[in-house]
Structures are given as C-alpha cells and as structure tokens.
C-alpha cells in the first residue's frame, strides 16, 4: 500500500511537508502544495483519517457521524443536515451520514456507524418524535437533533413549539382576529400537546374561552382531504364562519389556500391564514405570502454540531426558538 | 483495544461464532446470538468493516460512498438517497453519505471519502447538472446519479427528459388543447434544451408551428414572481388567451394555480395546467390534482446502486424513463 513516505519521496519533500499538505495546506506555498498533491494523485495515495488521528498529525480533524431517520418522508428538513455540515466545516470537522430506514437502529446500523470511528454522534429525525438510542451509542459523545429519547438525560435540541404557537396566536389576536378555526396536527404527534399549551396561554391572554374554539385534529399526517371537509362545514352561503384559519403545518395551509381562492375569497381580506413550519422550497410559493412559524431546523443542526465540537456542558432537552415569520396572509 | 478474541472469551464461544454473529446472525440460534451481542455490548467492541473485509469474513458486506451535492437547495430529490439505501440494504451492502457544499469536491472531500474505504462511489446531484469528477475518484468503481460529467465515458443515470416532455405534450394535444402557453425552466439549465427537443417532436406530430408558440423562459430558477407577470400578459378581460399552461416544474404550476383560482377560473374547465417533477411532499397538495411528468429519482438511485452492486457493463449516459402521471388538471 502506498505510504506517506512514497509521497514524500516522489514530491521531493519531507514527511512533515506531506503532513502539512494533508492537514494545514495554508501553511505551504501554493507551489509546494501542488507538488505534493500531484504526487498524491499519481500514487493514488489515500490518507487514513484514523491513522492521522492516532499519529496526532492534526488534532483539528474530527468526524461527526450522523444518523438520519425519516429523511425521505419529510424532505423539508434537509436544512438540518446542511447546517451540521456547514458548522462542522467551519470548525475543521468532517461529517458523514447514515440513513436509517427504521427506529431503533439495527445492530448492523450501529456496527457500521462505529466502524467509521466517529468522534461524536448526532441522532437526527426529520419530524419531531421519540427515539430509542442503543446503549452502545452512548459510549460516544452523543446529541439528539429534532427528537427526544426515552432516556431523558441525553442532550436533545428540539423546537420550542409552545412559545412558537403562543407567539403566533398572540400576533393574530393582536390584529383583532377573534373567531379562529384550527386544523391541528394529529393528536398522536409529539408536537400536538406542546402546541396546545401555547394556544391556551395565548387564548388566556386575550380572554378567549378555549373550550368554545373550533378545533379539529387531522387523523393522519397526510390526511389533507380532511381539510376540504372541515372548511366546508364552516362555510354558510360561501362565507367562512371564521375570521382566521390556524394550520398545524404549511401543507394544510396550501390546500386551504386553493380551496378558499377557488371560492372567490380573498386572503387575508375575507379570511386570514396562519401556517406552521416555513418549509424550505414551499414557503416562497404562497400567493399572498404566508405568515407562519419557522421550525428552526438550521439552528437545531448548528446547536447539535456545536455541542459536539465545543464539548458543551448541558443536559436534557434544549428548546430552540421558533421565530414568527410575518408576511401577508393576516 | 478490544478484539474479537476478547468477545469470544467472554461469550464462551469460538471465534467463528463471533464472526457469524457479526456477519451472518441468521446462522446462529437466537440464544447464541444474544450471548455474543451481550459480550460485544459489555466490552464495547467495535468491529472494523475493513478488517472484516480483509479477513474475508463476509464477502457480502460492501460499502457504497455517496457524494450528495445540492441536497439542501432541492429537498425534493431525497428519494434518490432513499432508493440507494434501500437497494443497498436488500443486497447486503451498506451506504454512507458525504454532503458536498460545492462542485467540484475539494481535496479534503475526496480524502475524507477515500479514507472510509468505500467499495464503490455514487456521485449524485439533486438537480440535473454537469459536474467535475476528480481523477482520484476514478480509481474506484464510480457512477453518476442525476448528473453528467465532463468525462463522457463515465456511467451516468439521468432523466429521459426528451421523451418525458414529448409524452406529456402528446397527451395534452391528444386531449384537444391547441393554444399552449409555456413557462420554461431557465435557458441555462441542462434540462431546457433536452425538453425543447421533446416539445418540438410533439408539436410536429400534431402540425403545430413551434415558431408561433407562446414560450417564456424564467430568468432564474426561483423567479416565480415572473409567473404572475407572464400570466397577466396573456389574459384579456380576465379570460386566458391560452387553453393549457405548460410549466417547467411543479413549483411554477403551484404559483399558477393560486393566480388562476384567485381570478375565479376553473382548472381544467377554463384552463388546463401541466406540471413537471411530481415532487415528493408537494405533488399531493394540488387541488385539483396535477397532471405532471415524474422525475425518476427513485429509479435513478436504484439503477446507480445496482450498477455498483451487480458490476454492470454499460458506459456513458443512461436515460431513465420519466413517466407521465395523469391526474385531473387537464
């Protein structure tokens, strides 16, 4: 197997220079760096990260292994992986990702992850949920992103949905809306209960009786057909019997937009709409632009990566702020 | 460092039994497997994949390294990664992913990928584009997914956009539509020219003069504001001067839906809409459901993985069929 010595010999430089080319190229002149790189290319030399780490060539190069669960079913959370990558890169760390097709991970998933010898682990899910963390993973620095574990001592960055929902409704009620119609996430979703608490706090602040609110919980995450039936039930002679529609996510809002616009109603003139998620790739398509709560995927990814990189001392669930994005729909 | 011998000793089994537990657990009784796993857990033993491969413990366990470029800007292509994962899993292979933040990959990206010692490489992009493949990566079995390289001998699975566009327009013209308005992808995108060829073929089949068609190319991928202006220009007294809107992607179609519905027009009664992409997470939100061309992300991922797993003998670009998904919008 080609060694670093072969590279040094071919390039006519010292071992130290090859090491610098691999780890701190900014310390070399462009010419020297290019000479080493050419030798590496010619010999098809593959530096071993773990070997470099053992030799202590570069204490800066650390690797984060990321388990990613549910990526494909919730494509909008890709910002979480992007921010882990960007945060790591800025700190001189590397990232690799293993997709999980099921929770908990199989023994083979865990074997594969550990065989790559990561310095720290992020366990991420694309929709907020509870996960099971195998004991063997807990031997490494570990942090959860957008999920919570059965073991509540584990560090976990999650959206602060209580404050997010409270803030959005406080904004809506401050605009004068008083007859909200809610189409919520399914009751079994983790976010449902948390957001109800925020909703109740906002209603109390404005003297609205929560028992009298028009509230519907979707039966399934993808049951958007139900949105049409719920809206239908609260229209009389084509006029909505509510002044604002509060949606559990932006996809519900998107269906509602088409149904309301198709009936000749103006948003927000005839009826206002409030979303939740601010999904990448979607949120910019609403006409008029949607006021919504932002799920802080980018911040969650950044915080999780920084936890490992900086070795932060926190424990348990860490709520991450969900900003209100005020646009034109209310 | 804990070795396989330590595990065997603690579990009271042979080295062969430990090897089987790691590689072919189905060959062991559940009790024996559990005894070995407990020993592995207790000793926090980490099997090294590369060591296993060198020892020939299990020729079935191979690893695919995936470069993923542009994931975050085009979240809808996650099915590509999902299908690579599922295809690999079914064949007893493993997958790990490295995100790229830029093209071409940096030397550090390449070092990191090769240091994980993959048996084969997939270079994937989320939107069809041309990429530059560093020479060092070509020493491995390599396949491109949803992109083409400057080196045209490389195997590359790409959407068959020519046939996709042809088939969709042939379907539309067969329904009797004859006054299409096109809002195309930006002219600089790779898909633009390919789809124009399909469009011209369909127009010829129905005797439509392509020079007289209403065609607009968006100036930027995200310039959806232009959609409103283009539609406005082709309405007289609130009536569209076209019978079908042909969209370069489903996001343009989504903007158009709201603009058309907001003017009291019925889809497809007053005007039909044809999309392109069939984006996961989006395509099911259209009311009425959108007829569109499917970008075959899942098939592309599967073909790329099978190319490596089966050692297929093909070369150059391999077009993958883009099916027409007929729904209710025309």
Automatic annotation (TrEMBL), chains A, B:
Alphabetical list of InterPro entries matching this protein: HTH_LacI (IPR000843), Lambda_DNA-bd_dom_sf (IPR010982), Peripla_BP/Lac1_sug-bd_dom (IPR001761), Peripla_BP_I (IPR028082)
Domain HTH lacI-type: 2-56
Keyword Repressor: yes
Key words of the record: DNA-binding, Repressor, Transcription, Transcription regulation
Pfam families reported in the protein's UniProt record: LacI (PF00356), Peripla_BP_1 (PF00532)
Superkingdom of source: Bacteria
MF GO annotations: DNA binding
GO term, biological process aspect, one: regulation of DNA-templated transcription
PANTHER family in the record: HTH-TYPE TRANSCRIPTIONAL REPRESSOR CYTR, LACI-RELATED TRANSCRIPTIONAL REPRESSOR
Name recorded for this polypeptide: Transcriptional regulator, LacI family
Source organism of the structure: Pseudomonas savastanoi pv. phaseolicola (Pseudomonas syringae pv. phaseolicola)
């Amino acid at each position: 197997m080609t060694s670093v010595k072969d590279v040094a010999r071919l390039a006519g430089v010292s071992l130290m220079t090859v090491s610098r080319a691999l780890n701190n190229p900014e310390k070399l002149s462009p010419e020297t760096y290019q000479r080493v790189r050419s030798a590496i290319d010619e010999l098809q030399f593959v530096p071993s990260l773990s070997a470099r780490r053992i030799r202590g060539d570069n204490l800066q190069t650390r690797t984060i292994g990321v388990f990613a669960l549910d990526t494909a079913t919730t494509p909008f959370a890709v910002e979480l992986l992007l921010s882990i990558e960007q945060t790591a890169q800025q700190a001189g760390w590397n990232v690799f990702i293993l997709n999980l097709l099921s929770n908990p991970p199989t023994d083979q998933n865990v074997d594969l992850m550990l065989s790559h010898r990561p310095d720290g682990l992020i366990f991420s899910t694309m929709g907020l949920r509870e996960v099971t963390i195998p004991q063997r993973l807990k031997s490494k620095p570990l942090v959860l992103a957008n999920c919570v574990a059965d073991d509540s001592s584990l560090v976990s960055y999650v959206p602060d949905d209580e404050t997010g929902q409270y803030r959005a409704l406080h904004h809506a009620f401050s605009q004068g809306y008083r007859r909200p119609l809610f189409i919520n996430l399914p009751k079994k979703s983790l976010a449902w209960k948390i957001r109800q608490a925020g909703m109740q706090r906002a209603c109390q602040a404005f003297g609205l009786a929560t028992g009298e609110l028009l509230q519907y919980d979707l039966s399934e995450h993808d049951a958007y057909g139900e949105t049409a039936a719920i809206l239908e039930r609260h229209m009389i002679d084509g006029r909505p019997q509510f002044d604002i529609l509060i949606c559990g996510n932006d996809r519900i809002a998107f269906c509602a937009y088409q149904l309301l616009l198709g009936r000749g109603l103006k948003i927000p003139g005839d009826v206002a709409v409030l979303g939740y998620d601010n999904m990448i790739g979607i949120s910019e398509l609403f006409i008029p632009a949607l006021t919504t709560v932002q799920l802080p995927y980018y911040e969650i990814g950044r915080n999780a990566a920084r936890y490992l990189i900086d070795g932060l001392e926190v424990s348990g669930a860490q709520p991450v702020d969900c900003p209100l994005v005020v646009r034109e729909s209310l």
